[in-house]
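STRUCTURE:
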C-alpha cells in the first residue's frame, strides 16, 4: 500500500476528500484486501509484554474500564510508575467477556505504521492506531463521539456500527465519564443515520464529533481504528507567541490598564501588527513546519549498511532573521533565504560542528531535499564548510 487512494479503494479518493472528509460519515465495503492485523499477529503483539501497561492496554467490562489492580501487576511498583499488565489477569477477564483496547499498535506493527504515515501525509495531521478486541454480542462502549477523525478497519470477525445524526461541533475535550453523561449522550444523539455491518476489509470513516456506537456480531471481533488529528486554530496562539517575540513592539511593557486611552491605543497598534504577522508568508512557514511536525518518521534502518556522516561547521558568523516574506540567514558578505528549513539552519549556526544526520534527527519535519539544497548554497557562499569530526 503506497497511497491514500490504495487505502480506501475501490472508493474514489478525490470524491472522498471533496464530499466526505470532515463533512459526513462513510461505510466502504472492500472485502478481500490485505489484513495488517490477523488474530495470529495480534497475539504476537500482545506477547511483547514490556510494551503493555495500564496506559497502553485498557480493559473494559460492561462498558466500564477495569480497575488497574484487576489486570495489572502492582507488586513493588515504584511511585509514579505505570503498572505493567499481568497477562494472566487479562485472560481471566477476557473469559468473562471483557474487551481489550490496545493503544499505539502502530509502534509495534510496521504494516499499521505505514498506513498511519499515509494518513499523516494526506491530511497534514498526526495519526496513530488502536486495536479493539471484543467478543460475541458485546458492546464495549456506549454511544459516544471522538475528538478526532476515525478510519475504522475491520480486521477479523464482524461488528455492527450505528452512526447517529448528531455531531458535536469541533470538540476538544471528552465528555466526562458517568451515568449522567451517558444519558445526555443518548438523549442528544438523534436518530440512527445508518447502520454499517462491518466485515473483514471494510472501512468506516467518522468525522470528528460524529455520535456512534457498535456491537460485536456472533463471533469475536478485531478492528483497527486509525485516528487522524490535524492542527486546529488553537495551535496558532503558541506559534504567534513565538513569532511575535521577535518584534520589539510585542516585547514592550503594556501601559497601566487604569489609563484606558493609552491601553486602547496600544492594543489597536498591536492588533494591526498581529494582523500583518498572521497574514505574512513567514508565518505561513511556521504553520507548515508545525503541521509537518505532527507526523512521525520511519526508523529507516538498513543494517548492516553504515552511512558515513557528513559534518558541517559555520565559517562565518550569521543569524536567522524573520522578515515578513520569509526567513533569511544574514552573515558577513551576504544573506540567503532559507525558507522552512530556518530552524535547522539556525541550530547549525550555534554548533561547533554538526552532521546532516543530526540535523534531520533534531528537525524531522524539515524536507531533506530542501535542507540539502540550502546547505549546498551556503557552502558555495562560504557561510559553512564541510569538516571532519576530531
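SEQUENCE:
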Amino acid at each position: 500500500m503506497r497511497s491514500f487512494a490504495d487505502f480506501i479503494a475501490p472508493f474514489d479518493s478525490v470524491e472522498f476528500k471533496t464530499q466526505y472528509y470532515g463533512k459526513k460519515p462513510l461505510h466502504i465495503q472492500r472485502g478481500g484486501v490485505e489484513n495488517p492485523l490477523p488474530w495470529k499477529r495480534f497475539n504476537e503483539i500482545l506477547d511483547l509484554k514490556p510494551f503493555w501497561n495500564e496506559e497502553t492496554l485498557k480493559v473494559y467490562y460492561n462498558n466500564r474500564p477495569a480497575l488497574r489492580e484487576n489486570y495489572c501487576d502492582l507488586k513493588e511498583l515504584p511511585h509514579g510508575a505505570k503498572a505493567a499488565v499481568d497477562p494472566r489477569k487479562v485472560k481471566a477477564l477476557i473469559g468473562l467477556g471483557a474487551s481489550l483496547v490496545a493503544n499505539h499498535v502502530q509502534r509495534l506493527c510496521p504494516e499499521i505504521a505505514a498506513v498511519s504515515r499515509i494518513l499523516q501525509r494526506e491530511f497534514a495531521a498526526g495519526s496513530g492506531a488502536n486495536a479493539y478486541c471484543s467478543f460475541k454480542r458485546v458492546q464495549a462502549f456506549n454511544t459516544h463521539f471522538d475528538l478526532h477523525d476515525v478510519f475504522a478497519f475491520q480486521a477479523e470477525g464482524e461488528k455492527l456500527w450505528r452512526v447517529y445524526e448528531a455531531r458535536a461541533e469541533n470538540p476538544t475535550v471528552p465528555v466526562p465519564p458517568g451515568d449522567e453523561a451517558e444519558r445526555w449522550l443518548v438523549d442528544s444523539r438523534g436518530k440512527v443515520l445508518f447502520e454499517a455491518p462491518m466485515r473483514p476489509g471494510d472501512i468506516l470513516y467518522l468525522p470528528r464529533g460524529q455520535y456512534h456506537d457498535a456491537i460485536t456480531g456472533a463471533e469475536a471481533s478485531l478492528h483497527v481504528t486509525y485516528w487522524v488529528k490535524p492542527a486546529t486554530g488553537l495551535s496558532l496562539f503558541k506559534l504567534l507567541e513565538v513569532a511575535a517575540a521577535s518584534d520589539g513592539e510585542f516585547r514592550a511593557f503594556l501601559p497601566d490598564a487604569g489609563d484606558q486611552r493609552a491601553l486602547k491605543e496600544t492594543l489597536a497598534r498591536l492588533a494591526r501588527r498581529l494582523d500583518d504577522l498572521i497574514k505574512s508568508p513567514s508565518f505561513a512557514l511556521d504553520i507548515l513546519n508545525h503541521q509537518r511536525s505532527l507526523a512521525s518518521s520511519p526508523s529507516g534502518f538498513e543494517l548492516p549498511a553504515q552511512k558515513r556522516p557528513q559534518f558541517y561547521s559555520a565559517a562565518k558568523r550569521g543569524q536567522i532573521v524573520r522578515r515578513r516574506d520569509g526567513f533569511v540567514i544574514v552573515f558577513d558578505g551576504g544573506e540567503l533565504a532559507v525558507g522552512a528549513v530556518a530552524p535547522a539552519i539556525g541550530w547549525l549556526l550555534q554548533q561547533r560542528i554538526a552532521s546532516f544526520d543530526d540535523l534531520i534527527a533534531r528537525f524531522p519535519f524539515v524536507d531533506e531535499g530542501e535542507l540539502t539544497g540550502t546547505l549546498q548554497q551556503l557552502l558555495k557562499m562560504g557561510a559553512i564548510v564541510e569538516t571532519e569530526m576530531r
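REMARK: Residues 260-278 form the longest helix (19 residues).
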